[in-house]
Each structure stands twice: as C-alpha cells, then as structure tokens.
Amino acid sequence: MTNLPEIAQVVRLPDGTYAYTDQLPTGYQQPAVPQVVHQHIHQAPPDRTVQRLALGSGVGAGAVAAGVYFGPLLVGVLTAIAANLAILAFLAVGLAWGVVQVVRAVGGTDGKNAAKNMARARKRRR
C-alpha cells in the first residue's frame, strides 16, 4: 500500500483563496503544518421562483404568502377528497356485487328467464 498517492489537503492561501496541497502555485512557501479547511454543506434554500414571478407581476406579498400557505393545504384536501370518493366507489361496487349474488341465489325461474330475455335483446341490438 505504499504505492498509493498521498491524499491532497485543502489549504488557505495568503490571498484568501483555497487550493489543494498538490496544486499550489509556484513560489508559495507552505507552512510546516497545513491548515485544514472543513467545508460544511447545507441544504439548498427553497425555490422561490413562483413567488418572485407573482411579486413581479404586481400581486401583493399577502397573496403570495396565502398561496404559499394554502397551496399545499389545498393539495392535501383534494387528495383526501379523492381518497374518500375512491373508498365510496369501492364500497358501492362491493354492495352491488352482493345484491346481484343474493338475487341470483334467491331468484327462481322468472329471474333466469328475464336474464335470458335481456341477453337476447342485447344481442339483437348489435
């Protein structure tokens, strides 16, 4: 493992710029102990493009703030409504299937004859 290159460190030059120790400018006198720079990476700020466009078009800051607040709230409410409607539709399908099964089980020859007549009428229309 002695044939691996040495890892370069970041140092601050006297002019305030940063450079790697293996790419120092010519004539630079490196101190005995290089100063290690710890870089902190932060989360990017939220994208405010929509707010800037709205403010630039003459909409007031209150309207922009309301849009920022109520926009995600509206999406959440619409999602909840859609989920409720989906559950109700599933429930209606299940109940209709149950009613059909009960009618088939209880129905006599009259129901079977009516079903046959309906099937024949559908075939004739085609």
Q: What structural category characterises the helix and strand content?
A: mainly alpha
**What proportion strand?**
under 5%
Give the rounded overall mean pLDDT. 78
Global outline: elongated
How are the strands of the largest sheet arranged? 1-2
Quick rundown:
With 126 residues, the chain is mostly helical.
Describe the structure.
The chain is mostly helical and 126 residues long. 56% of the residues lie in helices and 5% in strands. It contains three helices and two strands, in the order ββααα. The chain has a two-stranded antiparallel sheet. Strand 1 (10-12) and strand 2 (18-20) form a beta hairpin. The longest helix is centred in the middle third of the chain and has 46 residues, at 61-106. It is elongated. It starts with 9 loop residues before the first strand and ends with a helix. 0% of the residues are buried. The model has no long low-confidence stretch (mean pLDDT 78).
